[in-house]
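In this supplementary section we document a worked example of the pipeline. Step one takes a protein sequence of length 185 as its only input; no multiple sequence alignment statistics are reported here. Step two produces a three-dimensional model, which step three serialises into structure tokens for compact storage. The input and output of this example are shown verbatim.
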Amino acid sequence: MKKGLIALIAVGGILLMGFLVYYNTYNKAVALQEGVDEKWGNVQSAYQRRLDLIPNLMKTVKAAAKNEKDILTEVTRARAGIVEAKTPEDMELMGKKINTAINLMYEAYPNIQSTQNFRDFQVDLTGTENRVKRERDVYNEAVKEYNTHIRGFFASMILNRETFPKKDMFKAASGAENAPEVNFD
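The serialised model returned by step three reads:
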């Protein structure tokens, strides 16, 4: 073979290898960048779930507790025969209430469910916060892998920094180190 042909094949081989390195580096960077964006979308989805779920759970638990309180108050009043007798009709009603109260003394009080509702709320709240934390952790792992790739020796020489900028890890909001207050009022 002629030296010119060998040189041409060698240059072609080097160009082909360079193209393949660029192709693989670029495609991996694109895949990692899309993975980071997907993971951030999952964090946003977990935030939305929390925003949708927690206020509705709180309203449900509070309404159930209030309803239970009202029922227990009425049952207690009925059992105690509390009626102000102002008219003969009230006296008759009071007699019926006293009879009812005597009969009710032997009945069990209504089963209180609000404590279990509060426990269930705590479980749901903990589960939601665990989901949010997990999604943030997965996002940070994806950012680490992406940033490691784009900052690698060959990738940093090949990739455009505007197309593949370094991504930031999840950062907590200012004051996030303070525990939030859950208020049932």
